[in-house]
Amino acid sequence: MSDLADLVRTLGVKIRVITRLKYDPTKALDWALSRGMREVLALNKRAFEKAAKALKPEVVEFKEELQATIARDLSGVIQ
Length: 79
Fold this sequence. Notes:
two-stranded antiparallel sheet; alpha+beta; elongated
């Protein structure tokens, strides 16, 4: 295990890779409607993004970002 990994674990912090979706809503709507997915985009951005992660439409740009989280209980690392 690397020194950085040891430090991060000791501090109660996690680093993870998340995927953010970037797309033009108009193109996304056109794409979904052309595939009969009217209910996905009617008012439900969450449902579209879930489908987009699986279907990888050309109108969506997938961008991975790092996201840090801090443990709720830091009593073991803070004195």
